[in-house]
Design goal:
heterodimer, A: alpha+beta, four-stranded antiparallel β-sheet, three-stranded antiparallel β-sheet, 6 helices, elongated, disordered N terminus, B: alpha+beta, seven-stranded antiparallel β-sheet, 18 helices
Chain lengths: 205, 522
């Protein structure tokens, strides 16, 4: 499993530095494990997600993948049984099964770590910025004054690991609900409070 | 059971809709039920009274529900809120803060006009449905409601701003008192009306000629012909057999050409008719901080849009329109929701905000829509996209041609491959035009984007209307050192254009993202 570049850089002047950076989102400027140690929310630093998120993603992934693999194995054994072990069809099917299984295992086990490495968030005076994506990368910024309401959501698995998903709703159309998964539950609540305070009479439209 | 707000202002009387509403409630229900009624009648003809009995029962129940709603619907303006209550068993009290009201629209079909009443829709930024539908009010009532709502909204907006700045307590006091007293005492504020635009029949006809709206009628016409033919039991084959056989190919070609010309002329006639029926007597007026649109030949629509509610403005210039020096302007206001359930008034107020306008009038009109706009379109600092965008689009055209040629060559062996000869120059031309037309600009508080191959669209929003910003990169973008910058606004859709700037140079895109993030705080 590839380990992330886990260098912690100090980056008070993050935006400028980021402009000159060669990649849209680079993993080096993420503050490690920020969700754990009572982070300062509005610190203009990019926080990474809670490391437990990788675990929950893997558990959820493995549940799904194991069902698929068992179904695939049953299918493969039926094929082998009807054609014979060394028949061309059986061999082709076995190879295909192995390739797909390898892909699935990779997606289930390696992908969450990669996603974790590429996901980060930051709350500044100008709003909440979320970066994510391994292949298709994006960074999205929600100005504070545009936040309409927020949800903090926990599934059973997330509750077990103390995680939460924060959804920020704006009056927008395409990105009217911006989701931030894999937050530490306490961090999610603090972030929510930080997002909805000081909005005064602004109606955001 | 009574809500708090209901008791807060006991002195303000509740108002009801006009008694004539009864007629419109019944008609509206009948219209919804037109298909079941027809089906029921048909089956009754064939002696099945069960269906019609059940139908009548269901209709009666639903009609009763509507009637209860009608008899119990009451509304009033009190304490800066519009309150609407209805129902007996399931009572609903709805409270809409007046300064959240985005627009008040009127719809009048022919019947409404005979009785001099109108259906009123009140919209806020939330949701897809109008916040309240008052069916029906007299025109005088509507005018009063409108003036009161917008006076209160303007007062509270100004009051809020003043309070926030703590500039002048005295001023905010006056305004505060004003907004409280403006209801109940019959406070009338005659805002000066300023005509911004009126459309002549000639302009509407030209707009119809330049458009293909008539295509809308094709499915309706086909459906009508099918139903008509079935009803009269016309035998299509019998007609075909009467067509003289053994005509020479020359005649067939001529007949085909004549048919095409007739179809084209009909299309244009329908398009012109559509424009005239929809927008006859179009008038755009400015009333203080509001815009008022009125139009329609049979069904008259009147929409009021507060200027500060405009989220997005889009100028469209079709290919034929450019030849005739015509343009059209669409706007987006928050609320009213998506395309699917857009009603007539919403459609006019947004999608067809200015259905057609002479090119030389555009500048003056745009500058009226929001104070502080200097519309010098050709002098804007239109920034081209990444210098590699042209190459990327051309390469995409070549690859697309290759794939399509292979497929065509395989399906229609071997001459299908000739398709590539036609496709390549066409797609390269499109790629070239697309790359040439895509431009991005920032002028003052405006964020502008221009694109379009045949129909040129110039759209802009304002720094303070940006809802979210998004910068994204696909693996291909990374390879070409490009990124896509998307500016999301509220209730996007009617403009049929949005600020999604593709093929930006990644450094420029990042810089713009950071800068827009900075300015969108307001």
């Amino acid at each position: 499993m590839p380990d992330p570049k886990s260098t912690i850089a100090s980056h008070g002047d993050y935006p400028q530095e980021q402009l000159a950076a060669p990649e849209l989102i680079d993993a080096e400027v993420i503050e490690e494990g920020a969700g754990r140690n009572q982070p300062e929310i509005a610190s203009e630093k990019f926080h990474s997600l809670d490391p437990n998120w990788v675990t929950t993603e893997r558990i959820a992934g493995w549940i799904f993948t194991s069902v698929l693999l068992v179904a695939g194995l049953i299918g493969l054994s039926i094929v082998m049984f009807s054609f014979g072990l060394l028949h061309v069809v059986s061999i082709i099917c076995s190879i295909a099964f192995l390739l797909i299984a390898a892909g699935l295992v990779w997606l289930t086990h390696v992908m969450p770590q990669k996603e974790f490495n590429h996901a980060s968030w930051c709350l500044t005076d100008s709003g909440l910025e979320i970066r994510r994506g391994v292949w298709w990368r994006s960074q999205i910024s929600v100005p504070l004054a545009r936040v309409q309401h927020t949800d903090v959501h926990q599934g059973p698995l997330q509750r077990r690991y103390g995680l939460a998903k924060l959804t920020v709703h704006t009056a927008g159309t395409e990105n009217s609900a911006v989701e931030l998964t894999g937050l530490n539950f306490a961090a999610a609540q603090r972030l929510r409070d930080a997002l909805i305070e000081n909005r005064g009479g602004i109606d955001g439209v | 059971m009574a809500s708090e707000s209901e008791n807060t202002f006991p002195e303000v009387p509740w108002q009801r809709v006009r008694p004539i509403s009864l007629v419109f409630v019944i008609i509206a229900k009948l219209r919804q039920w037109i298909i079941p009624i027809v089906v029921g009648l048909f089956s009754a003809q064939q002696g099945s009274y069960l269906v019609i009995g059940l139908g009548v029962l269901a209709f009666a129940i639903l009609l009763t529900v509507s009637l209860i709603r009608f008899f119990t619907l009451q509304f009033r303006l009190a304490g800066g809120e519009l309150q609407v209550r209805e129902g007996i068993i399931f009572r609903s009290n709805r409270t809409v803060p007046v300064n959240r009201i985005q627009n008040i629209d009127l719809v009048q079909n022919v019947l409404h006009r005979i009785f001099r009443v109108a259906e009123v829709r009140i919209e806020t930024a939330s949701g897809k449905e109008p916040e309240a539908v008052l069916q029906v009010l007299s025109l005088a009532d509507v005018e009063e409601l409108r003036s009161r709502v917008f006076v209160q909204a303007a007062a509270s907006a100004v009051g809020g701003a003043v309070n926030a700045n703590l500039e002048s307590e005295a001023l905010s006091d006056t305004i505060g008192r004003d907004s409280d007293s403006s209801f109940g005492s019959g406070h009338q504020l005659d805002k000066p009306r300023q005509a911004l635009l009126a459309l002549s029949l000639k302009q509407l006809a030209l707009a119809g000629l330049a458009s293909d709206r008539g295509l809308l009628l094709v499915p309706i016409a086909l459906g009508g012909m099918y139903e008509f033919g079935r009803l009269l039991k016309i035998d299509g084959d019998a007609i075909l057999q009467r067509v003289p056989q053994g005509l020479s190919s020359q005649y067939m070609v001529i007949a085909l050409l004549v048919g095409l010309v007739v179809a084209y002329v009909l299309l244009k006639v329908f398009s012109v008719a559509w424009y005239v029926i929809r927008f006859y007597g179009y008038q755009l007026q400015a009333m203080g901080d509001d815009l008022r649109i009125e139009c329609g030949l049979f069904t008259r629509v009147s929409a009021t849009i507060p200027k500060q509610c405009i989220q997005f403005i889009s100028i469209h210039r079709s290919w034929l329109g450019r030849k005739l020096a015509l343009a059209s302007i669409r706007i987006e206001t928050a609320g009213g929701g998506g395309k699917e359930n857009e009603n007539a008034s919403q459609s006019v107020a947004r999608r067809w905000f200015v259905p057609v306008i002479w090119e030389h009038q555009v500048v003056a009109l745009i500058e009226q829509l929001r104070p502080g706009i200097q519309w010098t379109e050709s002098q804007f600092d239109w920034r081209p996209l990444s210098p590699r965008a042209g190459t990327r689009l051309r390469r995409f055209a070549v690859i697309a041609t290759g794939v399509l040629t292979l497929v065509a060559g395989f399906v229609w062996r071997p001459w299908g491959a000739a398709l590539g000869l036609v496709l390549l120059p066409a797609l390269l031309w499109v790629a070239w035009r697309a790359a040439k037309s895509m431009r991005y600009a920032r002028v003052g508080s405006l964020v502008l984007y221009r694109s379009g191959v045949m129909t040129r669209k110039v759209s802009f929003t304002f720094n303070d209307k940006i809802q979210t910003l998004r910068l994204s990169q696909s693996p291909f973008d990374r390879r070409w050192k490009m990124a896509t910058l998307t500016v999301d606004t509220a209730a996007a859709g009617p403009a049929e254009h949005r600020i999604e700037v593709k093929y930006m140079d990644v450094e420029v895109a990042r810089h713009e993202f950071a800068d827009l993030k900075r300015v969108s705080i307001v």
